[in-house]
Write a structure and sequence with these properties.
The structure holds two protein chains of two kinds.
Chain A: E1 11-20, E2 23-33, E3 38-42, H1 49-56, E4 64-69, E5 72-74, H2 79-85, E6 87-90, H3 102-106, H4 129-135, H5 142-155, H6 173-185, E7 191-195, H7 203-218, E8 222-226, H8 230-236, E9 239-244, E10 247-253, H9 259-267
Parallel strand pairs in A: 3-8, 3-9, 6-7, 7-8
Antiparallel strand pairs in A: 1-2, 1-4, 4-5, 9-10
Helix pairs in contact in A: 6-7
Chain B: H1 3-6, H2 15-18, H3 25-37, H4 44-60, H5 67-92, H6 100-120, H7 129-153, H8 158-177, E1 182-184, H9 188-192, H10 200-227, H11 235-257, H12 274-292, H13 294-304, H14 306-311, H15 316-342, E2 344-346, H16 354-364, H17 377-395, H18 400-427
Antiparallel strand pairs in B: 1-2
Helix pairs in contact in B: 4-17, 5-12, 5-15, 5-16, 5-17, 6-7, 6-8, 6-15, 7-8, 7-15, 10-11, 12-13, 13-15, 16-17, 16-18, 17-18
Classes of the chains: A alpha/beta, B mainly alpha.
């Protein structure tokens, strides 16, 4: 497990801060993700977890500090910039269109059309206006998209899905989460950020999704998981980064800590025991 | 889902890979039946509804199913269907366009006025049907774009903006037509747009071309999917569909080609109305846009989940403006067809129950008022129902009070069927 930390981190933030008016949401946060590991980002409500990932995803910029990706300094100003680097975010509400089928959802906004060979499609480059307009009226290459969707889902061992042509509305919570994650890795992404992926899922479905998260890391992707569920985190994460009131308090290796210690870090010692756990 | 597949240690048995195996005919049919039972009824109720309507009116008046009257129904439905094509796009977004009726009137009035003035004003002598119609359509498309611009820029409900449009464009029509009351259309091409018919030979040609086109499309899609290792429609099903379509097409061509003249000595009248071909062409183009292009996919996505569409990088506001533009464009085209039917435009153009018929056509055809669900073809099927009911009651000479009530009930029935099928789909976990 130790050898994944030998190289340089895939993503690193150095001293990033962000304030909204008078509220200092992040204060000089250092955070990094190595390829092939799952990092859990934990903290109480208002600790700055969402602010950190939204900054990385390009929803808004940081006020100060720098972000490096692949050891290169990058400026991420929009979700498109993030996607061009290979950073994908799976939000808690999944952002799936219920009326569209699995394939349509996985390719939403980046559909392949005839004349555009699969592979040269990058969502970073913006072709000229009229070309782009015309491309929106070219026939979609449904067969290529379906093949790719099936291959990706199989690769991630999403095995319970009956068909990729079912509307997403008819899928279970775990399947929907799987589709959202598969959508994120469809584009040769290198860093996947998951916001509360197991909230609102049942036991079997949580297991299904945690397995999927682990497989992403085993494929060499960097994975960041935001979660409140320490049990899930200890099951899947390699490292656990704790934010409190906008400060990065501590980053634990999972093998070297326990839930009690993490809770202590989250709450600054206000709660001595893990809620619901016999001490 | 089996519980087995969800435990990590069980052997990986992929339902997804299973789903790509080719089906036998039996499996395909039972799958389709299962779909119907779980509420995925498609256009089944409307076909049954049309049969019921035909039986009722035919038993009350034997002229209903004569070739002559069927052609009348086609001409009656054309304007409604063409306007409803645009309305389907708007409804797919989960919005509504209440101005469609009077925007269609603008299309008709603009055409009639320009053609009239081209005869009297030497400076406008260059105007003829082939440039007047595009100009009129440009005007109505611009009106639609204006509605879309107002809705998206100020984040207003489309209901309110187009309600304002309904009033304002009605006013514009009244002002343009003025006290004269009626503008006659002299131009032969526009005059005859709604009444011209193809020769019997051309009628056959159109029907055959359409069937061949559809069949080739189905075959190439199925064989390409099979080659790619994806589940395809079984060939025997496609052949069966083609046979049914060919028989139906031949029957329709035969009906159109029966002499419709009232007596033996009159000049023979036979052939498919040109307007039906026009309706078909618009249907094919718009259905292609809705179902086979990125733009169409984005319309469905915005209607299904606006936020998801936005996060996927879709320019939601641009899509909305474009859709209202399409609505204006198709309303204009429908208005020209309606004007051609009357061979004139009067101050009451676009009024009456036109707007309700248009919305009813789209909804009866199966397009949801809540966005994200529906097809362009629903506009044709719905318009056929609406026109049949109106025509049938016209034959029976019932008062317009009864007409309105019956049309209202048909619309209500359609919405109830839609709601029931949606509930059934929810219950069976499809939606």
């Amino acid at each position: 497990m130790g050898d994944i930390y030998k190289g340089s981190p895939l993503l690193e933030t150095k001293g990033v801060s962000k304030s909204f008016g008078a509220v200092q949401a992040l204060t000089r946060v250092d955070f990094n993700v190595y390829p092939g590991e799952v990092v859990a980002l934990v903290g109480d409500n208002g600790a700055g977890k969402s602010t950190l990932i939204k900054g990385i995803a390009g929803i808004y910029g940081f006020d100060e500090g720098e972000v490096t990706f692949d050891s290169r300094r990058v400026n991420i100003h929009s979700p498109r910039d993030a996607a061009a680097l290979g950073i994908e975010v799976v939000y808690q509400d999944l952002a799936l269109a219920d009326n569209l089928d699995v394939v349509s959802n996985m390719f939403l906004g980046r559909e392949w059309t005839s004349g555009v060979t699969p592979g040269n499609e990058s969502n970073g480059g913006a072709p000229g206006g009229i070309v782009k307009l015309m491309r929106n009226l070219l026939p979609l290459t449904e067969i290529e998209m379906e093949k790719r969707a099936v291959a990706t889902l199989n690769d991630l061992a999403v095995t319970t899905l009956r068909s990729v042509r079912l509307p997403v509305a008819s899928l279970s919570g775990g399947q929907r989460q799987s589709v959202a994650i598969a959508k994120a890795v469809l584009w040769n992404s290198r860093l996947v950020i998951l916001d509360e992926p197991t909230a609102a899922l049942g036991v079997a479905q949580t297991r299904q999704v945690l397995n999927l998260v682990r497989r992403l890391a085993d494929k060499g992707l960097g994975v960041v998981v935001i979660s409140h569920n320490l049990h899930d985190i200890f099951e899947v994460a390699d490292r656990i980064a704790v934010l409190r009131l906008g400060h990065m308090v501590k980053t634990f290796r999972r093998s070297e800590t326990d839930q009690k210690e993490v809770v202590h870090a989250i709450t600054a010692g206000q709660i001595g025991v893990v809620p619901g756990m016999a001490s | 889902m089996s519980e087995v597949a969800q435990t990590p240690d069980a052997p990986v048995k992929s339902a997804l890979l299973d789903s790509q195996k080719q089906q036998t005919v039996g499996e395909y049919v039972s799958g389709a039946l299962r779909g119907i039972r779980s509420g995925d009824i498609g256009s089944l109720p409307i076909v049954l509804g049309l049969i019921v309507i035909a039986i009722i009116f035919q038993s009350l008046n034997q002229n209903f199913l004569t070739p002559r009257n069927l052609v009348n129904i086609v001409i009656q439905m054309a304007g409604i269907a063409v306007i409803a094509y645009g309305m389907v796009f708007v409804l797919l977004l989960g919005e509504i366009d209440l101005s469609a009726g009077y925007v269609s009137a603008i299309g008709g009035v603009a055409t009639a006025i320009m053609l009239r003035d081209s005869l009297t004003n030497p400076a406008l002598a260059w105007m003829d049907w082939w440039n007047v119609i595009p100009i009129a359509l440009l005007v109505t498309a611009a009106i639609g774009a204006l509605h879309g611009f107002l809705i998206t820029t100020f984040q207003l409900p489309s209901f309110i903006v187009t309600l304002a449009g309904l009033l304002a464009w009605n006013g514009v029509v009244l002002l343009i037509i003025g006290d004269g009351g009626t503008v006659n259309i002299q131009n032969p091409v526009v005059r005859n747009l709604a009444s011209d018919v193809l020769s019997p030979e051309m009628t056959w040609l159109v029907v055959i071309v359409f069937i061949v086109l559809m069949t080739v499309l189905e075959f190439t899609t199925a064989s390409a999917r099979q080659k790619a290792g994806l589940r395809a429609k079984p060939m025997s099903i496609i052949i069966a569909q083609t046979v049914i379509m060919a028989v139906a097409g031949a029957f329709i061509a035969y009906l159109f080609n029966i002499n419709r003249a009232l007596n033996e000595t009159a000049t023979p009248q036979a052939g498919m109305p040109v307007i039906a071909v026009l309706m078909l062409i618009f249907l094919l183009v718009l259905a292609f846009i809705a179902e086979r292009t990125r733009f169409g996919r984005y319309v469905y996505a915005v209607g299904g989940n606006k936020e998801a569409a936005r996060r996927a990088g879709i320019r939601v506001e641009r899509i909305r403006v474009l859709v209202f533009m399409i609505s204006g464009l198709m309303a204009g085209m429908g208005g020209i067809i309606l004007a051609s039917r009357l061979k004139s435009v009067a101050t009451d153009a676009g009024g009456g129950n036109l707007l309700l018929y248009v919305i009813a056509a789209a909804v009866i055809g199966g397009t949801s008022l809540f966005g994200g669900r529906g097809k362009v073809v629903s506009a044709v099927l719905g318009a056929l129902v609406v026109a049949s009911v109106e025509n049938g009651m016209g034959l029976l000479n019932v008062s317009s009070g009864i007409k309105f009530i019956v049309t209202g009930l048909v619309l209500l029935a359609a919405v109830v069927i839609d709601a029931l099928s949606r509930r059934q789909q929810q219950a069976s976990g499809r939606r």
